[in-house]
Amino acid sequence: MRRRLAAATVLLTVLTSVTACSGDDGGGSTEVKTITVNLEGDKATPTGDRVDVDVNQPVDIDITADRAGQIHVHSSPGQYFDFKAGDNDPIKLQFDRPGKVEIEFHEPIDAPIVELLVQ
Ligand SMILES: [Cu+2]
């Protein structure tokens, strides 16, 4: 699914509300989990690795790419993020409940990146 424009709007709403309730309410790690992502030609890494994160733990998706594109975060609601060619500022994510969240490239190729296990 490609919904570039709608995605930007949803994203802002979600990030705002997540930031607002990011307290340290015990248990989970508050250390940033950085996921380094590379795209070059038809080759993308990582390739769908399982990554464990804690509820409310900040997750940075750090994308370096040879061309612009879009990733899809299969959270609920789903979120779409555009990236540009070259180094990108980290995409900041945080999940306020347990679950499995797949993150994948949707453009310029379709490829899984990681599967976050939030718990
Ligand atoms: Cu997707």
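The mean pLDDT is 86.
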